[in-house]
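call fold(seq) -> tokens
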Amino acid sequence: MSIIYQDPSISRDAAMTRIASGVAENVVTGLVSIGMSEEDPVWAQAICLQYLSSKTEAIAASAITALGHIARRHGRLDTETVLPALENVRRRMPSLQGIIQDTIDDIEMFT
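ret:
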């Protein structure tokens, strides 16, 4: 397996176009971009919360990670909504435990 590095900074419209494609790789790219570069944390959080319920682990993991980036970059999240949503994913996808804990750590540290 080779690692390909990509610039996560794409416009909101480009991110949403990738997400709307429904192709897992594109959805992941869109979510990562939103977490890393979106200036509206409320909007970004709402998009990420939508994708926590994905049945595709890579998509759910990207939404989780993006929430951590939002917390780190903006210093705020609606923890009353986000933390229970992360716990729901933890129950549904125990394999994502490490990613979820990293994001919870970021939320606790930065918000």
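Helices lie at 12-20, 24-37, 41-51, 57-74, 79-92, 97-110.
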